[in-house]
Amino acid sequence: MALADPPTTPVLPRMEQRWREMPRSSWQAPVERVVVGRWTGATGSEEECVAESDCHVLEVNLRSTDVRLTEAENLVHDGRVAAGSVLFTRAGCRLRAVYRSPFDLLHLFIPVRRFEALLREAEIAAGSNAVRYVGPDPIVTRLALSLLGTDDMEAGGSQLYLESIAQAIVARVIGRDSAGPARSPSQGSGLVKWRQRRVMDFVEANLADTIRLQDLARAAGLSRMHFAAQFRAATGLRPHDYVVRRRIERAQDLLRESALPLAQVALGVGFQTQAHFTTVFREHVQETPGRWRQLHRPV
């Protein structure tokens, strides 16, 4: 069931060897991978770097600080920076910072092609500024803090989680700063009826299979981000929660009306194992599948 839950292993960003230097263990990572790093320091720290030529950087301030920041010879900022503020830096920029108070920075190193894909997916038009501050933003802060716990970024589940958080931060930051984002006519409202019906028909036809968020968005004819927001506005449920609910309801029908073994019921509604099916069923119904069948089979 592939509509992303947070990783069970906490995601702890690797500490950088130098300010804004991608963590060394990530150098051999695939080109399209988003990498997260962290850099902390004390008063009086002077930092300088040239951004990687193939990566944009989003820097989230996890605490307020006082900094003078220049790009080449241009002053970007001089003064207090609130927690939750984000510094966006395009690939190849030369930065220099003088921190006058302690700082704690989270860096998302986003490959240029991956960044552009995130913008297209979110239907956002990026501005042209090479360096800019955006914020503070409590939503960005919460998203960034959700990354402070993974120690296994090589794992596929953790990387998927990181990608989803990166996409949310990019959309939030660049979307707020964009002068002319492209919008679908129905953005910000609930899913129109014909799109909603197509999605629900798709779910019904595929309950025995893996259903991904992009599959549902494709059925609706929307980007993943806009689909998820509009679906929730229309139904009050996240797409993942709706799919799980329909799996459980279909399972109840099979338990009530057939004599199929529990393992076959589980497979028939999209669960890979009977144990996982039992766990999710109990969470939703407060009974195990076997007990529920005993209580609800026709006499």
Notes on the structure:
With 299 residues, the protein is α+β, with helices and mostly antiparallel strands. It folds into three domains: 14-177, Regulatory protein AraC (Jelly Rolls, Sandwich); 193-236; 241-296, Arc Repressor Mutant, subunit A (Orthogonal Bundle), CATH 1.10.10.60. Helix content is 40%, strand content 20%. It contains ten helices and ten strands. It has helices at residues 112-122, 138-145, 156-177, 193-205, 213-220, 224-235, 239-257, 262-268, 274-285, 289-296, and strands at residues 14-15, 35-41, 46-50, 55-61, 65-71, 74-81, 86-89, 94-99, 103-111, 131-134. The protein has a six-stranded mixed beta sheet. The protein has a four-stranded antiparallel beta sheet with strand order 3-8-5-6, with no helix packed on it. Strand 5 and strand 6 form a beta hairpin. Helix 1 (112-122) crosses helix 3, helix 2 (138-145) packs antiparallel against helix 3 and helix 5 (213-220) packs across helix 6. The chain starts with 13 loop residues before the first strand and ends with a helix. Residues 1-11, 26-30, 150-157 and 177-188 have low confidence and may be disordered. InterPro entries: AraC_XylS_family_regulators, Homeodomain-like_sf, HTH_AraC, HTH_AraC-typ_CS. Keywords: DNA-binding, Transcription, Transcription regulation. GO terms for molecular function: DNA-binding transcription factor activity; sequence-specific DNA binding. This is Transcriptional regulator, AraC family.
Features:
single chain; 299 residues; alpha+beta; Jelly Rolls; Arc Repressor Mutant, subunit A; 3 domains; six-stranded mixed β-sheet; four-stranded antiparallel β-sheet; elongated; sequence-specific DNA binding; transcription regulation; Homeodomain-like_sf; DNA-binding transcription factor activity; DNA-binding
